[in-house]
Write a structure and sequence with these properties.
single chain, ABC transporter involved in vitamin B12 uptake, BtuC
């Protein structure tokens, strides 16, 4: 138990970073109502660009901006494939993700990974200073949520949300839904790449496979956040905060299970089971609640 408690700060720091990635997933999954698998590649792209730019002598803050732009470009490709070529969103994401594997290898200098030592470079977050990583991560979360809350309150933001809610009605009101989908995908993957840039700094390296299974973790954070905080967090900004909290809860659970002796090789299987269970909760509620209401009415 003491080992688990001592590991909680690390789980929180990692959960915050992945929670930022989950905000990107939330934009496509909930706001746009699209299944985007680009994130498995975009996370690695953000990390790879950050590491190589930093090694090349670029300021770490500017490198993060470049990583964000690289993620936006990946989202743009998925958006164009989906809206311009008529490819279903899920397949467009898979195609971009597949292409990004080779692109990420190229960015990393044809190597599977590249290290980024906190001893040599002035990193924003690092595994060696977890309290600082938590504080910096929370600052990023607050700033990101504030920007997104403002943006989705603008006319453009409302049109993106309208596209996700009812694309046919949005088109009837003169909204170019294809453009809105592309913009949403660009923003989403930019945020995911930003998370990848933070993750690469935190763990001290970028790996070509670091984004594998990212969509599962992102969905887990979104669903856990909705199930746990759905009735409390009604405001859009609070929902985004709930997603980050979901990421933290996910990593706390993962840490607890690993401390119980789970084989690390089974971690992906366990993650899939957790996501499946939380995805099933709303369905079970819809099946059980009507019966409970009927029973109460009969009792009255």
């Amino acid at each position: 138990m003491l080992g688990f408690i001592s590991a909680l700060p690390g789980a929180a720091a990692q959960g915050i970073i992945w929670g930022i990635m989950a905000i990107g997933v939330y934009i496509t999954y909930r706001v746009l109502d699209l299944a985007d698998l680009t994130v498995d590649g975009t996370l690695g792209t953000g990390g790879a660009v950050l590491v190589m730019c930093t090694i090349g002598g670029m300021d770490i803050r500017l490198a993060m901006v470049v990583a964000f732009i690289a993620g936006c470009l990946a989202g743009l490709v998925t958006g164009v494939l989906h809206t311009g070529f008529g490819i279903p969103a899920i397949l467009a994401g898979i195609l971009t993700q597949l292409a990004l594997y080779s692109i990420n290898l190229r960015i990393l200098g044809d190597k599977a990974n590249q290290t980024l030592s906190v001893m040599k470079y002035d990193l924003i977050v690092s595994l060696r200073n977890i309290p600082n990583a938590i504080v910096i991560g929370l600052i990023f979360v607050i700033m990101l949520i504030a920007i997104l809350y403002w943006f989705f309150g603008t006319e453009m933001g409302h049109s993106i949300r309208a596209t996700g809610n009812n694309a046919a009605m949005a088109r009837a009101n003169g909204i170019n839904t294809n453009t809105r989908k592309v913009i949403g995908l660009v923003i989403s993957n930019g945020i995911v790449a930003l998370s990848g840039a933070l993750l690469a700094q935190y763990q001290g390296f970028a790996d070509v496979n670091m984004g594998k299974g990212a969509i599962v973790i992102g969905l887990a954070a979104v669903i856990i956040g909705e199930v746990v905080f759905g009735k409390i967090f009604k405001n859009f900004a609070l929902r985004l905060l709930g997603v980050v909290c979901g990421g933290i809860i996910y990593y706390v659970v993962i840490t607890f299970v690993l401390r119980l002796g789970l084989n690390a090789n089974d971690l992906k299987l366990f993650s899939a089971i957790v996501v499946a269970l939380f995805l099933a909760v709303p369905y079970w509620k819809s099946k059980l609640l009507p019966k409970q209401v009927k029973v109460q009415k009969k009792g009255v």
